[in-house]
Design goal:
five-stranded antiparallel sheet, about 40% helix
Length: about 170
């Protein structure tokens, strides 16, 4: 029993370290993950959920939808997921697990009071992460809600797990 618990903890730690390394590599290799002053200024000027949602809805590119994902501090790896960074969407069901969507840009993060969780003056506990998804990815993620756990992983995965995607689509 102790070996099983130790292996599980080791796997969780390894996954966390892999994600942290992936995030660091992407930050070093891709300057697009670093928020510029204009993006930071735009995020600071938006203070309430309604304002953020209205602004992002009005700016939604054709063929995409705004997705709002509920999170906790641990879901964001201790606030290592930031606005304008990229995440991979990892799913764990009873029988399958893997990345189903990669390279998703985080548009905004709201706190429990539905205000911008990151401002010049303070960092608050995240409650919601907002991002755009294609219509197909949006439908896939909505269907996944009923089948398993959805995790946002900092950085972006290299490989989608088509077996997991097919499992979700056929369920």
């Amino acid at each position: 029993m102790l070996k099983k618990i130790s292996k599980t903890l080791l796997c969780v730690l390894l996954l966390f370290l892999m994600c942290a390394c992936t995030n660091n590599e992407n930050t070093l290799q891709n300057d697009n993950n670093i928020p510029n002053k204009e993006e930071e200024k735009n995020n600071e000027n938006i203070t309430s959920e309604e304002d953020i949602i209205t602004k992002l809805t009005n700016e939604t590119p054709a063929g995409q939808k705004l997705y709002i994902h509920n999170v906790s501090m641990s879901d964001t790896f201790g606030n290592s997921i930031l606005p304008n960074s990229n995440v991979g969407i990892y799913v764990k069901t009873n029988s399958k697990e893997g990345y189903i969507i990669t390279n998703v840009k985080v548009l905004a993060i709201l706190d429990e009071n539905n205000e911008n969780a990151f401002s010049e003056n303070e960092t608050k506990t995240p409650s919601k992460i907002l991002f755009y998804l294609s219509d197909n990815d949006y439908s896939l993620l909505e269907k996944t809600k009923n089948l398993g756990e959805i995790r946002l992983i900092p950085g972006s995965a290299n490989k989608l797990n088509q077996e997991v995607i097919n499992y979700i689509l056929n369920s």
